[in-house]
Amino acid sequence: MTLKDVTNVTSVTGIDETKMNDFVKVHSNPAKDEFIVELADLPGNCYLEARLYNSFSSMVLKIKNNNEKDDILRFNTSALPSGVYILQITKGNHVYSSKVIISN
Predict the structure, then answer these.
(1) Which top CATH class is 16-102?
(2) Domain ranges of the chain
(3) DSSP structure string for 14-49
(4) Predicted pLDDT at 71
């Protein structure tokens, strides 16, 4: 299998896994009690879903946002142990992933 084959397999999923740095900003990273995600006119016209995964790939937090006017998501991390987490935000076919460090 070559790198080209892997790229083709990824594109078959139909998910645009582009880095949406222009649309998503994560603040307070590393986070202590919470971190905030600012959204700026994300592409797509459907609801948004944000998930936080721990280092064992278990989902520990999930936020669904059906209100397109909300542009800030708050994640309360006070009950989570310190560690490295992966934030994944999905809106339509667009996916944004970022590493979040929690230090409680």
Answers:
(1) mainly beta
(2) 16-102
(3) --B----TTTEEEESSSBSSEEEEEE-S-SSSS-EE
(4) 75
